[in-house]
Amino acid sequence: MLVFVIPLKSPQVSRSWERVTKLFERCIKSVCNQTSPNFRVVVVCHEKPKIAFTHPHITYLKVNFPPANETNPVAQGNTDKGRKILKGLIYAERFYPTHTMAVDADDCVSKKLAEFVNRNSNSNGWFINRGYKYQEGSQYIYLKRSNFYKMCGTSNILRYDLNNIPEQAEYNRGYGYYKYYIDHEQVRNILKSNFNAIKPLPFAGAVYVLETGEHLFYDSKRLKFNIFNRRLLRKSIINEFGLYNLSSSVLTTF
After folding, report:
1. Which CDD domains match (predicted)?
2. CATH number of this structure's domain 2-241, picked from the four choices 3.30.930.10, 3.50.50.60, 3.30.450.40, 3.90.550.10
3. Which of 55, 91, 92, 210 makes the best surface tag, with the fewest CB within 10 Å?
4. Based on the number of CB atoms within 10 Å of its own CB, is 183 exposed (0-12), middle (13-18) or buried (19 or more)?
């Protein structure tokens, strides 16, 4: 059983809650489009978004700790995200997961993930080495051939016990307490040093959506595209990742 954990920012700190909601609805549709029914989704939020999409495998877990503030937007935002991921991971235990995956609420994932995890349930887990970059509204998508996990938070699938969940979780701690859940690019090396190495996922596992206007950390280098990695956003990619144009409520092909 694979449990996806999606931390959703609060309306109070969103530049556009309407935009956040649209991005999240596309994300959750993508996550729930798995080819195997053996998955669950835990969405951790301050306020449940108003979307038309529903699915019996989704649980909305509302939190009551204060949302991030504008004192230090990146640090505060990461702390809020870390708190929500930890909360979701603890809640996920009731589903008896073999593995969990944190998913950023504006990204899309392959529909093959749950089926792959079910077939390899004894594995330590995987990091997404190969994935896609997508600039919102484009008719093209770009293949990131390696090191995808270093740029995108939707990148690690871990055996449940390797999440290093504390015996008594504390939610009033700062950024450092949650670094393991937030610093996605470090997880691979940490687990390797502890003799629990995870493997590269053998297929492109996620789409990192750029220029949403809601990222905590913006790095202009992530927008650099290699024309040799450019692909038309064809129906096969749209169907696998659920990546439709946000200006439309239906899948769009090019």
Report:
1. Glyco_tranf_GTA_type
2. 3.90.550.10
3. 55
4. middle
